[in-house]
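A common beginner's mistake is to predict each chain separately and then try to dock the pieces by hand. The better habit, illustrated here, is to supply every component at once so that their relative placement is modeled jointly.
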Amino acid sequence: MSLISDVLVSSPHGKAGLTTNQMMRLVIYATIPGFIAQMYFFGWGSLLQLIICVATALFAEALVLSLREKPLRRTLADGSAALTGVLLALSIPPLAPWWLGVIGTGFAIIIVKQLYGGMGFNLFNPAMAGYVVLLISFPVSMTNWLPTSDVMMHNVGIVDSVWTIITGYSVEGYNLAQLKMTVDGTTMATPLDHFKTQVSLAQTATEITASPIYGEYGGKGWEWVNLGYLLGGLFLLKARVIRWHIPVSIIATLAVLSFVSYAINPDQTMTPALTLFSGATMFAAFFIATDPVSASTTAKGRLYYGAMIGVLIFVIRQWGGYPDGVAFAVLLANMCVPLIDHYTQPRTYGHKRTKAAR
Amino acid sequence: MQSELTLLEQIKSGKIWDFPGGIHPPEQKSLSNQGDITQISVKTVYVPVAQHIGQVGEVIVRVGDQVLKGQPLTAPLEGFSLPVHAPVSGIVKHIGNHVSAHPSGLEGLTVEIEADGLDAAITPAPMSNWQQLDKAEVADRLKQFGIAGLGGAAFPTYVKMQPSKDIDVLIINAVECEPYITADDVLMRYHSDDIVAGIKILQHLVGAKAVLVGIEDNKPEAISAMEKASADSDDIHIRVVPTKYPSGGEKQLIQVLTNREVPTGGIPADIGIVMQNTGTCFAVKQAIIDGVPLTQRVVTVTGDNVSSPQNLWVPLGTPVRSLLEFVGFAPEKRQKLIMGGPMMGFNIMNDLMPVVKSTNCILVPSSSELPERGVEQACIRCGLCADACPAELLPQQLQWFAKAKDHEKLEEYNLFDCIECGACSYVCPSQIPLVQYYRIGKAEIREEREEKIKSDKAKKRFEERQARLEREKEERLQRHKEAAEKRKKALEKDDSAKDKIAAALARAKAKKQEPAEPQADEPQDKVAAAIARAKAKKAEKQAEQEKTVNSQADASSGGDAQKDKVAAAIARAKAKKAEKQAQQEQADAVNEANAAPEAESAEDAEDAKKAKVAAAIARAKAKKAEQQAQQEQDAEATTGAEVETTEPELSAEQERKAKVAAAIAKAKAKQAEKTETPTEQPASEAVETAPESKSADELRKEKVAAAIAKAKAKKLAAEQAGKDKE
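With all components supplied together, the output reads:
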């Protein structure tokens, strides 16, 4: 008798597919193409931010876990904290001061994630909540994106990046504002920021996009970053880590809205291609909005959720005070998730098709 | 809802549909489906009496009995019940508890038979003319021969074969979607003719217009065998369905083959469909055509740790251990044994667990084959479970509610439509044992429902009782009110001459009452005493003792006695009148009332102590009676005059009053006799007379006597009333 297992296990026996830990890691890996593009165009800063944010995330998670007397090693191994760090690191300007990443990640992990109960219990996307805290608290630092390296006046190497992030000055003593200078001696904002400013100065879209910060169809460099994230996103779809509903819904909504808007008012509107391939569009569609914990969980609900984010991104970019609106859009949509889930319950087998969700 | 014609047309078109969700676990069928079915023999079988859904039968064999193969061991009861039969010939060794084929591993009543190895069977009883016989008779054969659904639920087949609704389609479930299991597969390969014969019987019984046999496309041999066997029948259609778990679920197969859905909480018969398993068809054929009861079934014994995975003909009741010994078995440390398939089977913790009618597989996996589930992590709401769910539930939400024990939400999210197929748990990245949470949730809700039914019943009982008490009280009040009104009306009506007479009477009576009562009572008491003397002679002897008792009673009765005095006075007046009118009848009444003194005489024999005890009881009762009397008087009228004037009406109140008065009068008479003093005595004494008698019998007798006396008095009163009116 002793030969036989006497542990009662509920069926089914055995399982297939990815584990949660594997899923988290795959998401991290899937950021690699976009991350590389970001490093290529905007320098080493992103890597340093990544190290800062991931380290902070793991430390903050460990701190709270030990306070909550939860298993430390096993929980850290699920990769969810590291993923939050990665996503936030990729969102903040590469040469932002180090404490920005620390504050943002600390807030994301301690307040937004762990205070709500840890993995699986957070109502809001931790990375985006952390991002919004930083954006509201330190708006200048958070919008200090460098132009792409080929148009920069000063070449920023890895040592300069480290120095700038830690001390605020490069090895040669330039501050961030000076480092942002382009070869023609002007300071450059991100394409989305630039476009918004120029439109308010009554420039036409054609005139604006003649600037060197724009590429073939998106923002210069940004189009490649977006392509990188699109590639990573497709990989996640293929690996069945994410479902198609949210990304497709976001991209489709944005595309339709910007197409309509462009058709009506081409002089003051970005082209659909520019909309989709600048800023954080693809990153949001595949990596941010698809965070399953804070997203809608029904198939239909995800379409609504994605559409809502798409609309909000468009609205904020078009009429809002910020150049990009991903973080706000995602957080606002997070708030609506319980409602969306409630009204998008699928029809269960054997129930009438007209059954109203209650 | 589409018409029946459309359904049949659809079916004829050969179209099949899909069901949402589903998974594709490794099939592992080829492990065990490579050969014919081998018959195994066993030394000892443990036949549980409960092998089906419904009531268990009554055991009809005794320890030491010699049984033949196929001999019934239990007799089915009325309702859903099936017998079990001896699967081997031999001797009943033991009848008692043995581990049952249930996930809990709890013990159940089991008949243990030691096989004699002869396999001597009962004489087969073929029912070759089943087509001519009454369907109920054929169905009863299925019952008597213990046929249950062999697909897993073990639902009594005869019940399904007597549907209350018209059946259009009989579906034969030969899908066998669980990985590893090939019992139906090989049965179809080697016994397709028998299965088709069974299908025809079932089709005949339910009156289905078409038969659909659903087989997954991973069983090409079985498909061709079945197609061949059913070639001569136009009604039987073989439908090949794509391999996807759980297409063999009853609801899912109906969806796949007919694009219909069984309404929630309903059964397939509600939409004109009955489903049976392939193995059951074989058993039906054996029961009807061969005349052999269900004593064995095909069981797949498979898994990496089985030396030669294969299908076996296993006598029902064979312990799992014997199967493993037969096929060869290389256990690893803490070997997992599963009864059923990997998706819905349960793990066995005792290898003496017997094979029963619903056992289709014994799985002996290696730990790498079916690894243990890892540590449960938090749900990340990824929704893979919802994608896999064939019932289109939201398992991620359900687990949340199940953990929170939010039963209302669980039901709102249709927990009871979960078929527990395990697809959600299978794909869950956080390795949450979702099905287990749902099972617990379901059990809790069921328990809660039962509790609720119980408490509702109790509540209803209580409320009904309250309502009844209230109603009765209302009715009483209503009666009082009506009586009062009647009296009032009567008073108003009889104004003129009658009123004067009444007034005169009242005056006269009032006069009698007004003077000191003792004097007024004297003559009346004497008359009454004279009448009562005959019946109360013996009481004289005890007079002294009684007097003591009575005086005590007096003390305790107090002021309440006054009302009774009034009543007594009225009674006396009536008694006097009655005497004048009908001396003879009065005498009769007295004779009748003798019963009471008889009781009293019995009491006489008792000693003084007992009398004292009785007196104490009497006092208590007297008080009660007084209160009651007072209430009644209050309800009727506050003055004696009014009582007098209403007398002619003979209302219910009056009658009662007359009774009381009569009783009081009698008591008075007795008292007068005892004490030989015509002094007025309080009414408490009158009430005392009843409790004086000790036993219930005596009391009853006395009451009867009193009642008769009262009736007489009433009659007199009535007569008098009539005269008064005149």
